[in-house]
Amino acid sequence: MMADQPTLPRILVLASGSGTNFQALVDASRERDFPGQVVAVGCNQPQAFVLERAAQANVETFVVNHKDFSSRDEFDAALMAHILRYNPDLIILAGFMRILTTDFVRAFRGKLLNIHPSLLPRYTGLNTHQRALDAGDSTHGTSVHFVTEELDGGPVIAQAEVSVAPDDTRDTLAEKVQQKEHLLYPIVVRWFCEGRIQLGREQVLFDGQTLDSPMRLPDN
Ligand code: GAR
């Protein structure tokens, strides 16, 4: 495993699936001036490909399988115990497909980010790409937000848009959105590690000022 760099903020990633966002973040964090270090990946799916990606990248992993617990509270308590061992400054949800309890979210308030595949507040929850197509939307995208008790409802930090083409399917749209996610998430993580973004009472503070609307990555 890579030696810890003691001065850099410690980032812990939670994921459930393929881990392309984890990969994008690890790749970004290997750039020389990146202000954070990825110290571990936690996963609730023992077979998830993200675990292989982490092994390849020499990042430590742990698995907390939700099927081993009879309640959400017990699962979250076990997850929290694992996370605390790494003493993270930032926890990022990158395709982590479990709903977290209020206790968990409160314990890490202001340190917990999520990426969600829609232009929030549109399409919280699942099947966002199909729902955007069904609604005939001409734009779609992805959002990075602070996690609060409300599912997919915490203050949005930044968004990236994609245009919806007439022949887009759920899969082509998902692909376009993921390409944007791989650019957007490392940028927001960088801002966080540089101390530029904070969670205020109910809004995002960017360089100490309330963010009136999410930062935007242009569609090009
Ligand atoms: C990402 O597109 C992310 O936005 C989405 O899961 C995908 C994970 O991909 N997250 C959610 O739907 C959360 N509700 P990845 O495993 O390749 O990073």
How would you characterize this protein structure?
The chain has 6 helices and 11 strands. The protein is of the alpha/beta class. It has a single domain (10-217), classed as Formyl transferase, N-terminal domain (Rossmann fold), CATH 3.40.50.170. It is globular. The chain has helices spanning 20-29, 49-56, 72-85, 102-107, 128-134, 170-193, and strands at 10-15, 37-43, 60-63, 90-93, 112-116, 139-146, 156-163, 197-199, 204-206, 209-210, 215-217. It starts with 9 loop residues before the first strand and ends with a strand. It binds glycinamide ribonucleotide. Glycinamide ribonucleotide binds at residues 15, 17-21, 94-95, 115-117, 142, 178, 181. GO terms for molecular function: phosphoribosylglycinamide formyltransferase activity. Residues 10-188 form the Formyl transferase N-terminal domain. Pfam families: Formyl_trans_N (PF00551).
Notable traits:
phosphoribosylglycinamide formyltransferase activity; three-stranded antiparallel beta sheet; binds glycinamide ribonucleotide; Rossmann fold; 220 residues; single chain; eight-stranded mixed beta sheet; alpha/beta
Give unreliable regions as ranges: none
Broad shape:
globular
> What would you report as the Rg, rounded to the nearest angstrom?
17 Å
Query: From the 3D coordinates, which CATH architecture would you assign?
Result: 3-Layer(aba) Sandwich
- Looking at the structure, the CATH topology is Rossmann fold
CATH superfamily: Formyl transferase, N-terminal domain
Mean pLDDT: 96
Q: What strand line-up does the widest sheet have?
A: 3-2-1-4-5-6-7-11
What hetero molecules are bound to the protein chains? glycinamide ribonucleotide
By helix and strand content, what is the structural category?
alpha/beta
N/C terminus separation: 37 Å
What is the ordering of alpha helices and beta strands?
A: EHEHEHEHEHEEHEEEE
So how many helices? 6
User: Main beta sheet: strand number and arrangement?
Assistant: 8 strands, mixed
Oligomer: single chain
- How many strand units? 11
Helix content: 25-40%
Strand content: 15-25%
Domain count, please report it.
1
Q: What is the highest CATH level, the class?
A: Alpha Beta
